[in-house]
Amino acid sequence: MMKKRPLLEVCVDSPAGLAAALAGGADRIELCSALALSGLTPSPGLMALATQAPAPVYAMIRPRPGDFVYAARELDAMRRDIDAVRAAGLAGVVFGATTRTGAPDEAALAMLIGHAAGLGATLHRAFDLAPDLEAALEMAVGLGFERVLTSGGEVTALAGAAGIAKLVSQAAERIGVMAGAGVSAATVAEVIRLTGVAEVHASCSAPPPPAAAPWAGKAAKLGFLDARLKETDRASVADLIQQLQYLITE
């Protein structure tokens, strides 16, 4: 049997980030805008650029920051964004929706995944808000998602490793379980050892170098430079890939 290593998905929100992730060896891209806000729907221009990527690209479908309880008009916008992803020729979409209890909104998710027919579909970390992760996983299986992205309901995948491992066992290869949140070259081996996941998700980001332009001080004062901003770092991607190479399995 051919040996394979765990797959690395990297989330990016800019043309430079996309190029850095691919240069570092990312296996799949989650394409977003505004990662400082946990990721929103990418622009049409960024989606068009991503069609040239040698790796599969899944676009985030999230119309606004904040919670994942969506009104009818927001769901309509999400449908239209799915149409844009399909028109761009990308491989898939990433979305989530919950009720006010945090449980997955089955009706909204069923509508969205039906609208995304023909595209791959990942249920993002809104999954971790569910009061019952096991029931949420069964719903995701029934709806036809390819995978769920999860930290096991904890702040990081390492902290939630025991919960992720239970989900991997429950999934029994009916659906992928991808570990994410705090995954880095320093933690990935332990995350995979404890969970048994075959896919991990990371931002591989670092703070950008300080702006040296003469206008940088004024831009910061006016709020144009956000201290939360980070950039995808090619070396961080490559380091993570190198650690995954050590985890090749039969």
Structure description:
Helix 1 (15-24) runs parallel beside helix 9 (234-245). The protein has nine helices and ten strands. The protein has 250 residues and is an alpha/beta fold. It has an eight-stranded parallel barrel, surrounded by eight helices. 37% of the residues lie in helices and 16% in strands. The N and C termini lie close together (6 Å). The mean pLDDT is 93. The longest helix has 17 residues, at 72-88.
Distance between the termini: 6 Å
Radius of gyration, whole Å: 18 Å
Inertia-based shape: globular
Order the strands across the largest sheet as they lie in space. 1-2-3-4-5-6-7-8
Note poorly predicted spans: none
**Structural class designation:** alpha/beta
Largest sheet: 8 strands, parallel, barrel
Number of helices: 9
Order of helices and strands: EHEHEHEHEHEHEHEEHEH
Say how many strands there are.
10
Please outline what is shown here.
With 250 residues, the chain is α/β, with parallel strands linked by helices.
Chain-wise SSE layout:
Blueprint (H helix, E strand, L loop, with lengths): L6 E6 L2 H10 L3 E4 L12 H7 L6 E4 L11 H17 L3 E4 L10 H10 L4 E4 L9 H11 L3 E4 L10 H11 L4 E5 L7 H8 L3 E4 L2 E2 L9 H6 L9 E2 L1 H12 L5
Parallel strand pairs: 1-2, 1-8, 2-3, 3-4, 4-5, 5-6, 6-7, 7-8
Antiparallel strand pairs: 9-10
Helix pairs in contact: 1-9
Can you give keywords for this protein?
alpha/beta, two-stranded antiparallel sheet, 250 residues
